[in-house]
Amino acid sequence: MYKNTLRKAAHTWKRIIKLRLSEQEASMLRFYVDELAFTDLHWGMFIPAIKGQGMEQRQQKWLPLAYKMQLIRCYAQTELGHGSNVQGLETTATFDPKSDEFIMNSPTLTSSKWWPGGLGKASTHGVVYARRLVDGKDHGVNGFIVQLQSFDDHSPLPGITVADIGMKFGNGAYNTMDNGVLRFDHVRIPRDQMLMRVSQVTREGKYVQSDVPRQLFYGTMVYVRQTIVANASCASSRAVCIATRYSAVRRQFGSQDDGPETQVIDYKTQQNKLFPLVVTAYAYRFVGEWLKWLYTDVTQRLQANDFSTLPEAHACTAGLKSLTTSTTADAIEECRKLCSGHGYLCSSGLPELFVVYVPACTYEGDNVVLLLQVARFLMKTVSQLGSGKQLVGTTACMGRVEHLLQCCSDVQQAEDWLKPTAILEAFEARAARMSVAYARNISKMPSQEEGFAELFSDVVETAVAHCQLIVVSKFIEKLKQGIPGKGVKEQLQILCNIYALFLLHKHQGEFLATGAITLKQASLASDQLRVLYAQACPNAIALVDAFNYTDHYLGSVLGRYDGNVYPNLYPKAWEEPLNDTVVPDGYHEYIRPMLKQQLRTVRL
Amino acid sequence: MYKNTLRKAAHTWKRIIKLRLSEQEASMLRFYVDELAFTDLHWGMFIPAIKGQGMEQRQQKWLPLAYKMQLIRCYAQTELGHGSNVQGLETTATFDPKSDEFIMNSPTLTSSKWWPGGLGKASTHGVVYARRLVDGKDHGVNGFIVQLQSFDDHSPLPGITVADIGMKFGNGAYNTMDNGVLRFDHVRIPRDQMLMRVSQVTREGKYVQSDVPRQLFYGTMVYVRQTIVANASCASSRAVCIATRYSAVRRQFGSQDDGPETQVIDYKTQQNKLFPLVVTAYAYRFVGEWLKWLYTDVTQRLQANDFSTLPEAHACTAGLKSLTTSTTADAIEECRKLCSGHGYLCSSGLPELFVVYVPACTYEGDNVVLLLQVARFLMKTVSQLGSGKQLVGTTACMGRVEHLLQCCSDVQQAEDWLKPTAILEAFEARAARMSVAYARNISKMPSQEEGFAELFSDVVETAVAHCQLIVVSKFIEKLKQGIPGKGVKEQLQILCNIYALFLLHKHQGEFLATGAITLKQASLASDQLRVLYAQACPNAIALVDAFNYTDHYLGSVLGRYDGNVYPNLYPKAWEEPLNDTVVPDGYHEYIRPMLKQQLRTVRL
Ligand SMILES: Cc1cc2nc3c(=O)[nH]c(=O)nc-3n(C[C@H](O)[C@H](O)[C@H](O)COP(=O)(O)OP(=O)(O)OC[C@H]3O[C@@H](n4cnc5c(N)ncnc54)[C@H](O)[C@@H]3O)c2cc1C
Ligand SMILES: Cc1cc2nc3c(=O)[nH]c(=O)nc-3n(C[C@H](O)[C@H](O)[C@H](O)COP(=O)(O)OP(=O)(O)OC[C@H]3O[C@@H](n4cnc5c(N)ncnc54)[C@H](O)[C@@H]3O)c2cc1C
Ligand SMILES: [Ca+2]
Predict the structure, then answer these.
(1) Domain B36-212 adopts which CATH fold?
(2) Distance (Å, rounded) from C-alpha B322 to C-alpha B368?
(3) A vs B: CB pairs below 8 A
(4) What CA–CA distance (Å, rounded) separates A481 from A483?
(5) Nearest Cα to Cα of residue A504 among A526, A478, A483
(6) Assembly ipTM
(7) A270–B589 CB contact, under 8 Å
(8) Any idea where the Acyl-CoA oxidase/dehydrogenase middle domain is (chains A, B) (predicted)?
(9) Model pLDDT for residues A479-530, shown as the tens digit of each residue
């Protein structure tokens, strides 16, 4: 399997150079190949890392090589003992002024690098994160470019142990990727292979903080997480496309007068589970587009040395990464269950889609840890209310906090819930009230840290509420723009309302508990939601066809565009290697003696 | 892999006969082998089916052979086109009075049997469900014992096509099981191989309903679903055991004065996700024990021709099957995520535990379809209120419906939520009010069927509320019994309260919307829950150690009893076949040409 992945990666790269594709076109091509490979990390993480943290000088040396694939790299941060806590990494890089080198070392078992994709077998180089020990002092963790394998024969360089970490979830998924383990035994590298944009070590062994602010790291993070949100929309739209099409093909029960049975998509229970997922795929696409804009905005500001929006941008991308990946992982599995038995077959495409997707909840920040960052940011925002500090970006609505703490929703009948203003106000009121309430509770505790630790999980709910508000408001903003295509805007309006009211129903408890809406209004929202589902139903197939996936890309017998599920599922069975022989291997050794009651005498 | 499974199954059987194990001991042994095999269906479904539906006479012929494993059987019900709707199966069994035989046939592609475990390769016989066509009339679906493979050389008998259906989710899991496809081309079997307990076809070709009531089927279902609930408790306790132990080993952040970092189990977010799952594993164990009692009770009543409790028993086991399997599947995946990165390694044991478990949401009744049955039963119960019909079993509390619709919880401070009466009343009020409200809404619709279809998904929520009430009340009942062991009862009391208050918080919206509790009371419940988590924390490890799993059985490096995670995780990597060579297979063909920029000239 791994060899086959290598073949595909080489093929892709050959195409890229042959057709002289641009960076963006190349990334499209890799998208369509749709199999994880070491090259993903090379493009997705390694290059952005050098771009963000290297110096101009460094970039001039490494980037062209990387772009031409003359070296293959991985992003080697996580260790056996440390993932989330990057500052706790144990790999050391000790500066030796005599030779002008850093000595890379793995002092403990838990300091072994563990997980980096592409590290196990393919990479020639890695960006390795290690603690800088300079003149006996610990200057914290930084990236280093380290050559790992020889250019001659691809064997590990002296002092380096490298291997694959072994079987992961699924039978395909990340098993096509050589996530690796790496240990250093006093490996020397030239000083200038430290990434020195943010701080430098001089020839004389002096540690110098550069005037480039640390926040620059955040720029890279915003970039990477923005792509993760875009991927969430992509993965969820694939899953809902499969489940929706199959739900229209599958019929079960309800035949009248020997007519055909009911399409399962016509059952309200199926709709109630499926439609919110379809709608969420759209919502995530729009919030992803907005994040792309945000990244451009942040980059431009950084270039102009304006860091004012960075903390907010950082918190909101962290939160959206967490929200979108968690819900997308669940959505894929829910889609699989909505296909019931046949969804459990690999040929449905859903099992591997799930397995390959689900680590997005873990890498680039464990989702819970990320929500805690958002929560901290929100608590800080609340504590600064009234201090005159300007509220930017997604927290701007907190400027109206007085209003939001007191307002009563003016929804009086179900249709009132179709008004964007009504929806926005309810979501803003819920989020603001939760933030203020928890900030108040925390302030009652002996210390802020203690309070935060004690109320951890409640503030996490606040962070989720804030992120949902962002997604809802960006969906609403999107609809204010001109949208081409006849009737498209009306359809999207329905989707937007479903998204909001579905969330409102799901988190009814919070809306009620904060008094953002009344019991009566909650019940009206459920009524309106039911009406909206009925409106969306006739267009369900069109909505998922609009994602425009080819059958080849979807890779699902259940999700075929032509709906020819059964005639294609049946012959698939015969591709199973067990069917190469009629009588299974092992019959004579095991089955026959059992049937013939001869087990006692047989050696097994 | 499949061959290895055959080997283990033969081994297990050899042990069983050698040691002359009883039926119960044998089932324990198969439990510890803990790998799916064709034999599971043989014991779990085939034998109960003949026991339940065969005639005495039949049983005398088939059961001893089955018990001695002189034939291997599968339970062949599901077809390509029909799973949930058993009455829609298309395989036909046409009676031919001339030869006193049934002719088994697969008239359409969708009539192909599809999914039966053990069918693909191992089974010699199957209980095949088919429509009986007798004298031109369709008498509905019934089971037939059909020989599939020859005893001589295990090749399919004439007219029979049988094969494995191919790759399923996961790399192990159900891939050790030969789920199969089966087609009949006019295969003749003797008349007496129809299972005839409930109805018969005479020599003359007369269809006769026996006086044994159809409800007998339900008895078998109660049995099978009862074992599924017991398995849910087993699977969830395995998962929480792994995640809890690893959470105590894993440290991340929070180091003070260079001391060790914080154990992640001490983070409230981790506790908030983990502890409810631990507690649920206990709750399911107790409700499982109760279901076992229920099955015995039902069986005794059946023998005495008392069918009065059967509908209620059937509904409540259906609901509990659905509730426990859905939440257990989610719990396993949640546990995996709580182990973050390392949970994604197969050596964590969690990926395969999830994959092998998750079809329990689908087989023996799709979980949504089952909830609809419960909902129908509840709506019927409500409609009969006041008619004098006796309310039995878990619906008995509906006898106090007047009270439950009006009562106000008397909880005034957080500790009041520790009182079993307060908890019970809140859960009963919520369930009863939801049932009554939806029954009323349905009755407003033009027809009951339409109303039911329209409000489908809301009544499903009602069914869940009812099932949660059952689990909570059985937990409380359990605690009324004497429980041996010093301090054990006090611990279980904490778990019971956590379970109830966790559910109450999670479904806060419903408790508030029905007015079962007030806003203030909801907030007190959350406060009390926080206190309970803190009380449970010091005993977390003891609580999962109490499940008493050996390391071998757990099969998880992260869940080791001795906590030696890292020294065992590290060497595991070297078992990966990719590590057999230092330079990966494919280097010369693909990696090297890419690095040396020679791709243009290379043929891939
Ligand atoms: C498929 C895959 C690919 C990967 N690729 C790469 C790669 O290319 N390069 C690389 O360097 N790494 C890679 N990783 C590693 C990944 O980045 C880490 O797994 C991730 O950062 C999470 O860290 P962890 O696993 O140490 O989790 P931990 O931090 O150990 O988390 C364990 C549990 O503790 C909780 N927790 C931790 N800290 C706190 C806190 N402060 N408060 C509350 N709760 C807390 C978490 O929520 C979680 O439930 C990959 C991982 C996977 C699964
Ligand atoms: C691992 C595994 C092992 C199995 N082993 C066996 C075996 O040994 N023998 C055997 O005979 N079968 C076996 N099965 C098949 C299993 O019993 C069926 O998959 C199951 O009964 C569900 O039926 P289905 O797949 O046809 O789902 P469907 O009924 O097609 O369900 C599809 C969707 O429609 C919805 N739906 C269906 N009807 C309704 C309704 N009336 N109202 C609302 N929604 C509805 C469902 O909720 C679901 O979301 C196995 C399946 C698996 C996955
Ligand atoms: Ca797998």
Answers:
(1) Butyryl-CoA Dehydrogenase, subunit A; domain 2 (2.40.110)
(2) 7
(3) 359
(4) 6
(5) A526
(6) 0.95
(7) no
(8) 74-176
(9) 999 888 888 999 999 999 999 999 999 999 999 999 999 999 999 999 999 9
